[in-house]
């Protein structure tokens, strides 16, 4: 929630006026200009900016198909999925990997 509203309600509608608001204290001077939005967002408190980033990140995660992969990334994922399907026991569980990383960081 951003300032008590969901991410969807914080976004301007197509017929929204050019004086939409990100919050009570930070107006979107022109809803169509990302540069203005970013500049205005910097005036929010750190806590509110973190909430905004979380809302944006969640909205991106809600439509993963909209985030395209390059051909090389898709090929790498396909290769790794193929290897996993051939030998499901070849990898390490996340907990093991995490512990290994933490041990390296402590050195």
Overview of this protein structure:
The protein has two domains: 7-65, no CATH class; 69-106. It is flat. Mean pLDDT is 76; it is low at 1-21 and 23-31. Helix content is 53%, strand content 0%. It starts with 6 loop residues before the first helix and ends with a helix. The longest helix is centred in the middle third of the chain and has 16 residues, at 46-61. It is an all-alpha fold. It has helices spanning 7-10, 34-41, 46-61, 71-86, 94-106.
Features:
107 residues, mainly alpha, 2 domains, 5 helices, 53% helix
Determine the strand fraction and express it as a percent band. Answer: under 5%
Q: What is the total number of structural domains?
A: 2
Please work out how many helical segments DSSP would assign: 5
What is the helix fraction of residues, given as a range? 40-55%
Number of strands: 0
Low-confidence stretches: 1-21, 23-31
Mean pLDDT: 76
Q: Determine the N-to-C terminus distance.
A: 40 Å
3D shape: flat
Instruction: Output the radius of gyration.
Output: 21 Å
Helix and strand pattern: HHHHH
Main sheet: strands, sense, barrel: none
Structural class by SSE content:
mainly alpha
